[in-house]
Write a structure and sequence with these properties.
The chain is mostly helical and about 90 residues long. It has four helices and no strands. The longest helix is centred in the C-terminal third of the chain and has 21 residues.
Amino acid sequence: MPQFTIDLPEAVMPALARKAQGWNKSPEGFLSSYLVTFLETDDEVPVDARREALEDILEERDKGPFITITDMDAFRKTIRDGVRERVQQRRNA
């Protein structure tokens, strides 16, 4: 496997160590995994564009209209039925 050397400022090492710890990896392993993931997804829509689209959707939904839930069990059943229908559509696609 090819190897490379990166010179990083000492000031970023604590942040890198925290990130690596969250992924249960060494700092070197974290950087390697991060770079591989970045390169594999480079052709996809940038994260910022996806995040912005999600924020737009959430802002629009935040405007309403809102409903009053009187029967929580019936509401949950409606949600579950809708999810099952979407899952079935994806399986058939």
